[in-house]
Design a protein that fits this description.
The chain has 20 helices and 21 strands. The chain has 606 residues and is α/β, with parallel strands linked by helices. The strands form four sheets. The chain has a nine-stranded mixed beta sheet with strand order 13-21-20-14-15-19-16-18-17. It has a five-stranded mixed beta sheet with strand order 3-2-1-4-5.
Length: 606
């Protein structure tokens, strides 16, 4: 038995993954245990979990693989600072201590952190992304496209995966980066970089892409093959502590929005503009890669691959017959890619196929808490719960959400990646016109414009959405079926910006965004049978095979991991019920919730 541990760390979303003889056994992000969102530190808790899940000790590891090459990254850092000297001195002085203390000595740091004496390998960053996209995919061969902020030097790469090998053929290099362009607009619209990009995507439908020509005429020279160069005189990320500078502000009608201040039409139009640019870059690149490789399948990874609006357009209008996206497409997934490239490419082991299905099995790769663990929590906490039979539980939960109640759903193995996929989810009635505002304002404590995703029975997806494609990882946006939409009045059609928010747009208004789109999760009986049974019971009650699914957390908090996390989130919010295993917690039955200090100060807003 060959045991390989993959690690990503020291930028954001640190994670660990363990494979045994090529089989994916366990994976998790450090934030879920540390309770610090996007935690970048060494993934000590995630490593411990992976070893425990695999039933091995550190001494039984054959290889540890880190997701990028730190010396190449340091070379890029130094060359960039020298190119912009002396203006980058402050940023340079802030970055150096961590590099000198840890990052330059990663082989030693890893061995020390884990008490590991074996071999440590370092594939390149985009190789790790590419491996995470291709090796778990359902395809024997595929074109590969990775796009993110930056790895060592590469910001975009493409190539081909065949059998047990990946071959990256071309790269775009720092500072020219689609991920960093999107992050610059994230910063400028007042959201947190490496955390708030999905907010920009969600805000885009409220605006008009009025700045597209400004971007293309001034800051981005975009070629037909999707390659581009950016005018760095508008940006500050190479040498400063912010993403943009005064020239950028002059170009886009004023200074950056201050975080937590009111959103204006300008921010909505900026979001719409950078989203349209992103889609155009992805489409042009995909057409070029298709022409160069002749492949019918495409696999995607890197942070830009989490842009599910762009993914939806690529699926509908792009040249590829099939696409598959790594569920943990960001840096967390690099841990998985690093482990897989070691097994297949470094050790030259064959790659199995799974009869047209991917090898990530729903991405349910985190810890599970059994009946004994839940009962121990009940005893320890004094929480009050009613035990249901497993046979009755799905119907009982379906009855509750049919009554427009909101339920915390804590079941099975935790998801790997940024999306809650029916293991650590908050669920509700998609037919309810009030559900979006209730969940946003009273439970998630987040901005009102943020859309929610539908979980739909896989066999019924085409009854509700303009797609027949499976989307188990909530990474593709599709439009709600025309016949389910509600025609807007003349007055409603004239609404602007946030005025659009509370207009009921379809028979499933809680999951229909202002542009009639939805970020779809198809639920499959083979990968999550319990969740599927519950939605099936809801369909039996209501005739509707769709529910609302959002991640089990509040704004700024990582998705819950343990029973303690789940119960705390339940009690801190206006959730009505919590189902944990087959134990049902009703809010009115619980003892008064007490904790020291204001829990809202515990989580840094994203």
């Amino acid at each position: 038995m060959v045991n390989i541990l993959g690690i990503s760390a020291y930028y954001h979303d640190s994670a660990a993954c363990l494979i045994q003889d090529g089989k994916l056994v366990a994976a998790g992000q450090e934030e879920r245990w540390s309770r610090k969102k996007h935690d970048y530190r060494f993934p000590t808790h995630a490593v411990d979990y992976c070893l425990k899940e695999a039933g091995i000790t550190v001494d039984q590891l054959d290889y540890v693989t880190f997701y990028d090459k730190p010396f190449l990254k340091f070379e890029r850092l130094l060359e960039t600072y020298l190119a912009f000297a002396p203006s980058g001195l402050k940023s340079f002085l802030m970055a150096m201590p961590l590099w000198i203390k840890e990052k330059l000595w990663l082989p030693d740091v890893i061995k020390k952190e884990m008490s590991f004496n074996g071999q440590v390998l370092f594939p390149e960053h985009h190789q790790s992304h590419a491996a995470s996209a291709f090796f778990p995919s359902p395809y024997e061969s595929a074109a590969i496209l990775t796009m993110d902020g930056v790895g060592e030097w590469a910001t975009t790469s493409w190539g081909v995966g065949r059998d047990n090998k990946i071959d990256l053929m071309a790269e775009l290099h720092f500072p020219h980066s689609l991920g960093l362009l999107y992050s610059a607009f994230t910063y400028f619209t007042g959201f947190r970089v490496n955390s708030g990009e999905y907010k920009v995507m969600g805000l885009a439908p409220y605006g008009k892409p009025k700045y597209v020509d400004v971007i293309l005429d001034n800051i981005m020279d975009l070629k037909e093959d999707g390659s581009f160069k950016m005018d760095m005189s508008y940006f500050n990320y190479c040498q400063g502590l912010t993403m943009t500078n005064g020239s950028f502000a002059e170009l886009f009608d004023g200074p950056p929005r201050k975080p937590e201040t009111q959103l204006t039409q300008r921010e909505m139009d900026l979001a719409a503009s950078v989203q349209k640019i992103t889609e155009e870059v992805v489409m042009r690149t995909a057409r070029h890669v298709h022409a160069e490789t002749g492949e019918k399948n495409l696999v995607l990874a890197g942070g830009v691959a989490l842009n599910c609006v762009s993914n939806g357009k690529l699926l509908r209008e792009g040249p590829f017959e099939n696409i598959w996206i790594q569920p943990a497409a960001g840096d967390a997934g690099g841990a998985l890619g690093a482990a897989l490239i070691t097994w297949h490419q470094y050790l030259d082991n064959p790659r199995p196929l799974n009869g047209g299905k991917d090898l990530q099995t729903g991405s349910y790769l985190g810890p599970e808490f059994d009946q004994t663990a839940i009962e121990a929590f009940l005893t320890e906490s004094g929480a009050v719960a009613k035990e249901l039979t497993w046979a009755d539980m799905p119907q009982k939960v379906a009855d509750i959400i049919s009554d427009e109640k909101v339920v915390g759903w804590f079941q099975g193995r935790m998801e790997f990646g940024p999306r809650a996929l029916g293991s650590r989810s908050i669920i509700g009635d998609a037919r309810s016109p009030k559900m979006q505002s209730v969940m946003n304002l009273k439970i998630k404590y987040r901005e009102s414009f943020r859309p929610f995703a539908p979980s739909v029975l896989a066999e019924r997806v085409s009854d509700y959405f303009e797609t027949e494609t499976e989307s188990p990882y909530m990474l593709i946006v599709s439009e709600v079926k025309e016949e389910l939409r509600r025609e807007m009045t003349a007055e409603e059609q004239n609404f602007f910006g946030i005025e659009k928010l509370n207009v009921v747009r379809s028979e499933i208004p809680a999951v229909t965004h202002v542009d009639y789109s939805a970020r779809v999760q198809t639920v499959h009986a083979d990968t999550n049978p319990l969740y599927h049974q519950m939605i099936k019971a809801f369909e039996k009650n209501t005739g509707c095979g769709v529910i609302v699914n959002t991640s089990f957390n509040v704004r700024g908090e990582p998705i819950v991991c343990s029973p303690r996390d789940a119960y705390a989130c339940f009690m801190r919010t206006e959730m009505d019920y919590l189902i944990m295993g087959n134990y049902l917690f009703a809010k009115e039955d619980q003892p008064k919730w007490r904790e020291e200090g204001d829990w809202r100060e515990e989580f840094e807003l994203d």
